[in-house]
Amino acid sequence: MRRRVIFSNTLLPYVLLAPQLLVTLVFFYWPALQAIYQSVLLQDPFGLRTRFVWFENFQLLFADPLYLGSARVTAVFSVAVASLSMGIALLFAVMADRKIRGARIYRTLLMWPYAVAPAVAASLWLFIFHPDIGFLGRLLNQAGLAWDYKLNGTQALLLVILAASWKQVSYNFLFFLAGLQAIPRSVIEAASMDAGPGRTFRSIVFPLLSPTTFFLLVVNLVYAFFDTFGVIHATTGGGPAKATETLIYKVYVDGVMNLDLGGSSAQSVILMAIVIALTAVQFRFIERKVHY
Question: What whole-number distance in Å separates Cα of residue 247 and Cα of residue 64?
Answer without folding.
Answer: 13
